[in-house]
Amino acid sequence: MKNKILVPLLAMAILSSCSDFLGSPRPQGVLDDEQMASPEYVDNLVISAYAIWISAEDINSSFSMWNYDVRSDDAYKGGKGTEDGDVFHALEVSTGIMTTAWNISDMWQRLYNALSRVNTAISSLEKMDAEEYPLKDQRIAEMRFLRGHGHFLLKQLYKKIVFVTDPDLGPDEYNNLSNDTYTNDEGWQLIADDFKYAYDNLPAVQADKGRPTKAAAAAYLAKTYLYKAYRQDDPNSHKVTEINKDDLRQVVAYTESSIMSASGVDLAADFHDNFRPEPEYENGPESVWAMQYSVNDGTTNGNCNWSFGLIVPNIPGVTDGGCDFYKPSQNLVNAFKTDNAGHPYLEDFNREDYEMTGDDADYADPRLFLTVGMPGLPYEFNPKYMMDRTIPWSRSNGLYGYYVTLKHNVDPDSGYLVKGAYWGSPMNHIVLRYADVLLMRAEALIQLDEGGIDEAMSLINQVRNRAKQSMSMISNYEKDYGVKIKIEPYSGTFTKDEALKRLKFERRLELAMESDRFFDLVRWGEAETVLNDYYAAEADNCTIYSSASFTPDKNEYLPIPFSQISASNGHYTQNIGNW
Fold it and tell me: What is the tally of helices (H) and strands (E) in the chain?
């Protein structure tokens, strides 16, 4: 069992109704002032604020955001057909999205429930005496980190959100909060402020792996400033109106290698190490901050990761009930093609589908075979399960293709696949990893254009060089399966535009199927162009896109849920786009 802090069973008992306190027999669970001010009680509030990110996780509204990344060109929704998860089909084709749809309101509610627990903990922590509770500032920093995380996910999804930054608001005050109080830029700054407090008050190393470190706060602070830099403050548009250099300089400042190395952060030796469930690989050097899952820890099925329960393929007699959602797109697979120099094509890469084997086989980046399960290759590197073009690998009988994501699944024979209502595993979900940090820094340096392009290309090459040596699971693929693998770093000098094109492509390859792609396209202001081109290219082979259309200044963000606006007494306004 991992050394971790997520204890959902205890935490849920505390926060759901405050019905228990360490086994106290007091009537109806009423706590007196002395008990509520005790370090034990406050510790349990802190644990509960962590625990909700596990206990409130849901296969249909995953905090990993995979359900909402089906809007990108990386993935098809998958499942049995368009009616299987129809509200997510609406998202993937950018049409028919309803403010009353359950998937619009469910995530909003889950995230604000999580923020409520965080603020409950902060309120109690702030009342503690520092001498009696020496970890006061550090625990507040952890809670403000979690509050920043929750607001960050909300802002990515909905843009026009309510900020709950006062932990002592009463019910009437909560009911009067507005989602129009802050501009877009001011909202990002509020999130940055929470991460800055965390950065200033967290240690470089934590004994409990689930607790964020100074490096985690720095990485999230940098990510917040990177989003903030791409200003979208026109109230009548989601267009990027400015790329702010002061924000970019903050990204550079908080991605310094010295900050990361002090917390032991580095690239994993092999790309695939980040997506393995074995304890010796979890919380490895590249995991800056991760949701902690476990099994065999004394609870039923442990604190398993059920968030990817819908993604498992339906292999008869092996993964019966697997739902086969979130399938890699042909467009993504084609993006991994490389030329004779071992570089991606960057342009026109989708002109022809990737040919895996045969005389005309294309070269491919090795990360393709560590990201996408493909017909003719073993599923999760186990030759007992060879993928082909049959229903076990596509519940839609080919409508969504036959590719399967590898990053979220585990070998069925590994002992790490757990059957509950759906399939789960103890594999952690990495929220921030070091490759992302390197690429964020590279992007900021390129956009600043202040003499840092060479450094930026060196950072991109670090990621590519690591990919080149990531062969532990696929060293036999060329010999046994006829694939051709080739990747090389870039050489020479590049203009800002050339470097930026390579950076954006590298982010797609490195972070594919990790739910960053759609949000990257939105913050770059490229979603309309990229996705409408994608729909047009896909329509001939994937009929679900025949009527797809991305509407700018609308589809970049989800609408504010109808139920929330109705209950706000006029304090909430809808996102633009004529929802």
Answer: 20, 13
